Batch of 2 targets.
Target 1
Amino acid sequence: MAYRTDRKTAEGLGSGHAGTHHHWQMMISSMALVFVVPIFLVTFSLGFGGSYEEVIAYFGHPLPAIITALSLIVVVLHVMNEALVAVEDYVHGVPGYLTQVAVKWLAYILIAVGLFAIARLAL
Amino acid sequence: MADVNRGSRPLSPHIQIYRPQLTSVSSIMVRITGIGLLFVAALIVAWLIAAATSEPAFTFVDGVLRSWFGDIVLLAAVWAFVYHMLGRLRHVLWDFGYCFEVPVAERLAIGMFGVSTVVTVLVALARFGGLL
């Protein structure tokens, strides 16, 4: 023990156990949101509210389809990390790990189903 | 001496003990809106997959999202999107070492609430006020 530094003893004791990579991911996706959120809100607002035929036609255009797909990936991965940090902070032990797995399942299923839907509408 | 006083060190007080302040409330709202957006994403994906599936499926999901309840949820979602984006931008500013002064952080908090509310009102006007 005498040769261990304070830093070595403290490492990994935070609620998330490790977080530097996670923090970088959040910074990068946070900056991406500044571009993605406005274009997504405009794109989705223009596509929402029409009839079935209008919606199919709208997402058949490349730009709305690409913007919606990009937003889906960026936003869902960002809020997945957001939710994971909250789980690390408030849910511990086995329930914590299980909740983290559930959050990741939900996020990846949303991306997979959403991309399939956009591909089907666009092609 | 890493293990001096182990077990009897002062712990950081829990969140309930602090008086709510602009800085803390605006930060907690970033987390709440972030988690809320995960469920908003689920609604949007449901709408997309319904449109990709069939007209009856689309009519159902689209009808739910365009009901009065859906209007409230989607307007709240617009607010959450803008608020979360601004709140995370504030975190990026902090990460680069700017805007740490309490009055500045508080002004940014008011700005986050203000801008997201203005954008939501504009979207509501555009949608229901015949602006669009």
Target 2
Amino acid sequence: MDKHINPSTRAPSGTARVLRLAGPALWALGLLIPQLLSPAWITIGGIFAIYSIVALSQDIVLGRAGMYDMGHAVFFGIGAYTCAILSLFYNWPVLWTIPVAILLAAALGAILSAPIVKLRGDYLLVVTIGFNAIFVLAMQNNLFGLTGGADGLFGVSGPTLFGHMFGTQSDLFYLDWIVLAIVLWLMRNLDRSSLGRTFRYLKHDELAATTLGVNARNYKVAAFALSAGLAGLAGTLFAMQLSAVSPGSFRFTDSVVLFAIVLVGGQASVPGVLLGTAMMFVVPQIFTEFAQYRYLAFGVAMILVMILRPQGIWPARKGVI
Amino acid sequence: MNTAVSQPSGHDADVLLELDGIGISFGGLRAVDDLSFKIRRGEIVGLIGPNGAGKTTVFNMITGVYRPTDGHIRWHGRDITGFAPHRIAAAGIRRTFQTIRLFQDMTVLENVIAGQHLRMRQSWWQGLLNTPAQRREERELIERAMTVLQQLDLADVAHEIATSLPYGAQRRVEMARTLVAEPELIILDEPAAGLNEQESAGLNDTIRAIRDKGITVILVEHDMSVVMNVTDNIVVINFGKKIAEGKPADIRSNPLVIEAYLGQDDDEDDPLMNTVKDQVNA
């Protein structure tokens, strides 16, 4: 190896350096929410963290691997129902339901996607809508007598960790916020790893990627599994936060919202997706008197962004290394 | 040398790739018909023919993009007909594309790292957890990519977005992406297309340098200054059939080849036709 080759990555630009510090700083600032803001905002903060995780997981399939998954609420729902069913019917400690929910959602993601990843984008989108419709129907019809029908299940408690029961809204907020940090760290690592790069190779040019040795099918299934696993994780937090799960939270329209958050925020862009989630779940709370217009506002935003800024409000940085 | 593969009796050990009567039809069109030729280790082989003769289709069959409807493709004597592209890549065959196919929005370095996909040892969880072993491998991937970029005079633009580079540089990035895998055979689909005279002269040196590394080269090319100067052997096809095969000097004076090219009288700019015309008039 020649000595003068400098294999180090390029020096980060000024904005990149600011961002690298701004992200953790904003997260740390968020930790103060329970001290500074009203109880309503503590819940909003928790919900924001949960939906951020789901939207980031949607972005693995959609923004990175480039597959139009319009049924992502299914995996979110699997996580939530797994947590509720295991803790309510089988008296599992809530904490233990988390790894099971992640694995179950990931397995379902792999099984459902394996036969369909060969489909072209628009066909895959229609199939995933079908998955979502079937999931909601199954939950409404009290599948195996476990899902509680249209009303869902009630009474999920927070987990007990190190002898401390996460019962209050601010306890749950801290839990959500810490899990969000872990997921953000995983996303950062994903983008710098072979796995994340291979997803992007497949999105940009599948033929070129396969002639370089990429087994496209395996990697697409892996994208679905990873994405579904993270959505399942978010689902368990959701069940704890609301202490209830019902089919109404995991409908096709919820999948559409997740899809739109990624497109409006910026595909494969972590700050973009967080911004999109905030627009959808936080901004409406600031203007509560207009809250009933939030779909209208988001709809208009979607139209304007797609026309004026198709790469999203905060597009992904080009080139990670 | 792949000694694990049992070699059929009479198999020439020097033969790397053998096309044996391959053919493919698209609907009613017979794009390639009963085509056979062999490529020996260390050769630079040119595949030429008029537009629409089926040259790129042949490449697509070798690399698994299309599945031949007839015949066999053998690699080290082993039948690889109809293998998926990623298995062809794993066998040690890499290609470039006639229309450059770089990963847009990604840097030159990221594009070249893609060529090392099959060398990657990090597992998915090592990547997600950013383990020390994974970070070490990432550094090695970058170092190897930089070495190849340096050889192709691209080190200065390693962090540029690949598709923002001039055309000639993009071609070299695509070549770097195949070379970094250290393949046994590299397939170049019109590497001189879109290059200016100076760049295509440089291309000759690049192709020879590739061969000098022990990599066998097969190329489709219209630029006769490239084909006639660098190839050891030329296969000429027309309407999907082989019409001639031999050394560049023989091909130049082959009457069938002259006819195939002269037959295209509306293609005044075809360089081989002009070369051939000069020969005929001389």
